[in-house]
# Entry
Amino acid sequence: MIIEIHLLQSFPVSNLNRDDVGQPKTATFGGYTRARISSQCQKRAARLLFTEYGLDESATAVRTKRLVEKAAEALAARGRDPEQARDVARVAVRALGFGVDGKDLTQYLLFVGRQAIELLADFCDREWDKLVKAADDKKKAEKVKPDKETLAEAQRILDATRVADVALFGRMIADNKDFNVDAASQVAHAISTHAVANDFDFYTAVDDLKPDAEAGADMIGTVDFNTACYYRYANLNLVQLLKNLGEDKDLAARAAQAWLYAFVHAVPSGKQNSMAALTMPSAMLGVVRERGAWNLANAFLKPVDGKKADGDVLAASLEALMEHFNQLRRFYGDGQLRTVVAASVTGHVPYAGEGETAATFAEFAGRLLAATGA
# Structure
């Protein structure tokens, strides 16, 4: 069973997700430049909200290169010598099969449950003498291919069957495919429903303590931005989620609820201190289906024309979204659709079927989750 969420969300002046030169990300779609927010950016914003929507912190993950540092801190808190603890933690991480650089950072970000740090510290404590000896032996202190016993330890430390973030968004570890987790949720890059052109803000700043006789700015610069109404889409495969969480139905239900609420409420943090583009989705379409998935981005292959829509880009976007959804239903059939629910802050949803609208977000979410049995 699969849950799909389609959202329309308009942002005023903003730079939510920057590219390598600081400009808002864009993509060409239907021959026109569109504003874009990457899926990675949306997933992180959602992950940071999981504990607000039903998940304990112990069921969430961290993405980090700092396992050595954090394990060393845990060992020091247990009474171990801090300097020796760091050496031991470094050797331990290498013994588990991961490279560590000169700054004690792992070769790449590892997506692990929060308990991984304490479990790594436990491993260091148990193997303390052996790891201390290895730390003194430069050859043994390098990254090694773990033996069967150490590999089992690594699997225990990286176990993700109680970690909702990893179960939802998956994990890939190049050094050992046994640690990989197939994602239960797919998230699309959000794109604007209309064409955009990035703009920039030229700003000046004045030294507050400068003498009155001195004129002029003391700092000048530019900040790029755009304004856009985004189409956002994500789906969640509940069968895969349950499998990833070791068939724990209660945790899977809480993870699905947290995913739904967090994805709707997630807003990227980019440039928010200077632009405060803290809007909410204005319209949403939710689907619970037995199989398949429909990304409805093609509703906007022809960009919405704000001028023809009399400036109401949101209304025109919602009409295009619902029209395209119904075209797909008519053409491909909707036998696989278990529940369809649409909602908008205006209360108006064009082309919505009878009984397929909700008056509030709480009703929208409740009906979707109830349809899954979660």
